[in-house]
């Protein structure tokens, strides 16, 4: 579904991303994992041309993305950012309806699908008339997910969508998101710095550092077969921290 072939991005001569290549199969979830500033968000945004690649080739659904106007390309790609990106002066219903209106859906069709997505994401029906400022952070992110998925895009890009939420809310939203039936057929690229989230959600992981892919493979490949000390330290430290916390809790009980 997605092919990135040696894509690079330079900002004023500075290499933010260098020769990144990967493939994402239809219905798979690929995770771009790494610390802040490693180039993972820049890589993600090149897939829907929010950032134009300096060099390299990107294909989605067998088509070079440069052969289509960016605004048309983005209508077929769902996108959720960390800060949710909701329009503050739009109601929940108006935010969710942005893409369907661009696609000239009938009003009744939009309302029907909006109600279905609110129900699936466990939001009350009366939220349609509320504004983003009237919602909690978790509720706002659920609306952003509904907006990204309402038109059933074949590809969904997620830029640390749960990162701004508190731990309890993040766990709840992530669980409800992962259980959505529509995602079974959706190709997903997820950006995160959270190893646990990557291991739980990813079919395939690309670990990045300083604008390059250091290792890519299944969660088991990175966890059990790190290619160098950086991978071992990055993955192993977070897993060790989780294990130590778990053991401490067990001891207290």
UniProtKB/TrEMBL annotation:
GO biological process: quaternary ammonium group transport
Domain ABC transporter: 2-235
SUPFAM superfamilies noted in UniProt: P-loop containing nucleoside triphosphate hydrolases (SSF52540)
A Pfam family assignment: ABC_tran
Source species, domain of life: Bacteria
GO MF, one annotated term: ATP binding
PROSITE patterns: ABC_TRANSPORTER_1, ABC_TRANSPORTER_2
Keywords: ATP-binding, Nucleotide-binding, Transport
Family to which the UniProt record says this protein belongs: Belongs to the ABC transporter superfamily.
Protein name: ABC transporter related
Native species: Dyadobacter fermentans (strain ATCC 700827 / DSM 18053 / CIP 107007 / KCTC 52180 / NS114)
Lineage: Bacteria, Pseudomonadati, Bacteroidota, Cytophagia, Cytophagales
């Amino acid at each position: 579904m997605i092919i990135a072939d040696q894509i690079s991005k330079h900002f004023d001569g500075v290499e933010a991303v260098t020769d990144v290549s990967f493939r994402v199969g239809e219905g798979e979830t690929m995770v771009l994992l790494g610390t802040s500033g490693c180039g993972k968000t820049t890589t993600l945004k090149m897939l829907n041309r929010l950032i134009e690649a300096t060099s390299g080739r990107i294909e989605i659904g067998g088509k070079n993305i440069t052969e289509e106007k960016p605004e048309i390309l983005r209508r077929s790609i769902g996108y959720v950012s960390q800060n949710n990106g909701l329009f503050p002066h739009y109601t929940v219903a108006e935010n969710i309806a942005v893409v369907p209106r661009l696609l000239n859906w009938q009003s009744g069709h939009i309302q029907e699908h909006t109600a279905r997505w609110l129900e699936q994401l466990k939001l009350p029906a009366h939220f349609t008339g509320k504004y983003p400022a009237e919602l909690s952070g978790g509720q706002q992110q659920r609306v952003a997910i509904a907006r990204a998925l309402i038109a059933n895009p074949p590809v969904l890009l997620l830029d640390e969508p749960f990162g701004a939420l508190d731990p309890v809310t993040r766990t709840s939203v992530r669980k409800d998101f992962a259980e959505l039936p529509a995602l079974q057929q959706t190709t997903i690229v997820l950006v995160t710095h959270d190893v646990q989230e990557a291991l739980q959600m990813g079919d395939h992981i690309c670990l990045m550092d300083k604008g390059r892919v250091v290792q890519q493979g299944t969660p088991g490949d990175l966890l059990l077969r790190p290619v160098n000390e950086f991978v071992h330290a990055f993955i192993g430290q977070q897993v060790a921290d989780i294990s130590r916390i778990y053991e401490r809790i067990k001891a207290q009980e």
